[in-house]
Specification:
201 residues; alpha/beta; two-stranded antiparallel sheet; 4 helices; 21% helix
Length: 201
């Protein structure tokens, strides 16, 4: 069974000192580097939040405060601080992440009108990123997933992967949660387990 490692959004803005820093984010980078060193993956894919400056998920573009929720194209949209803006330092991959073996990069959140938590598609399920096509082309059946953040982009990437028929494994030691609410990370794990995602150590 051919397998791929999907590394979700390990970017400066989600790491220590970033605009939307995930608590403990930097702790997962050595773990991810070890996974790449100690395992033979057929493909290693990075996902990258890549927002235009006028993205509608940014509180600043809606006259709202961070943490408020609006309805965007018919679904609730959490208001985030500006982050991972195209071409900025914050959107770059963290410099400690070893990218020597990376075979593919998928950019998401590029349309100002739609947010994209999942590495596979936008939140409205209108536009695919091309990740599924890439994996199917390379006959990948097993996905191991790590990255940021557990309760948003990692969760939705895992759920989509399972729904698309991949054997889907989350490395618990390779992810951290935003925890806007204290139990968000725990709830995300429970939801994934209910949807045939295997959680590894």
């Amino acid at each position: 069974m051919k397998k791929a490692l999907i590394i979700v959004d390990v970017q400066n803005d989600f790491c220590e000192g970033g605009a939307l820093a995930v608590p403990g984010a930097n702790e997962i980078i050595p773990y991810i580097n070890l996974l790449m060193q100690d395992n033979e993956y057929d493909e290693i894919v990075l996902t990258q939040d890549w927002h235009p400056a006028d993205h509608k998920s940014f509180a600043s573009n809606n006259g709202k405060k961070v943490g408020e929720t609006i309805i965007l194209n018919g679904i609730p949209q959490f208001m985030w601080p500006d982050h991972c803006v195209q071409g900025t330092h914050g959107a770059d991959f963290h410099p400690d992440l070893n990218r020597e073996k990376v075979t593919h990069i998928v950019r998401k959140g590029t349309n100002a009108e739609f947010d994209s938590y999942s590495g596979f598609q936008d939140n409205n399920h209108f536009v695919k990123t091309g990740l599924d096509d890439f994996l199917k082309y390379h006959d990948i059946q097993l996905l191991e997933i790590v990255g940021l953040a557990l309760d948003y982009c990692v969760k939705f990437t895992c759920l989509d992967a399972a729904q698309l028929g991949y054997v889907t494994c989350l490395h618990f030691n390779g992810t951290r949660a935003v925890n806007v609410k204290p139990d968000n990370g725990k709830d995300a794990i429970f939801e994934m387990l209910q949807n045939t995602v295997t959680v590894l150590g």
